[in-house]
Specification:
This protein has 3 helices and no strands. By secondary structure, it is mostly helical. It has one domain (13-64). Helix 2 crosses helix 3 (38-64). The longest helix has 27 residues, at 38-64. The two termini are 22 Å apart. 0% of the residues are buried.
């Protein structure tokens, strides 16, 4: 988990990351009729970032083999 705290999105994946956050923070809640508070946006931003990190790490591990 400490690796996640020091991790940044690679330059070639920035547009994908921004799109992922836009879907998770704007479109999906709007589609479901949910309205977040500031704390809700912060919590969702953190778990979306962790989820993206785990997905990228798994993708990289699979492609390195």
């Amino acid at each position: 988990m400490y690796n996640w705290l020091n991790w940044w999105v690679p330059n070639e994946r920035i547009s994908n990351y921004i799109f992922f956050l836009f879907i998770g923070l704007v479109l999906l809640p709007q589609f479901m009729g949910v309205q977040f508070t500031v704390l809700g946006y912060l919590v969702n931003l953190i778990w979306l970032d962790v989820f993206y990190y785990w997905g990228y790490k798994r993708f990289k591990d699979i492609n390195d083999e």
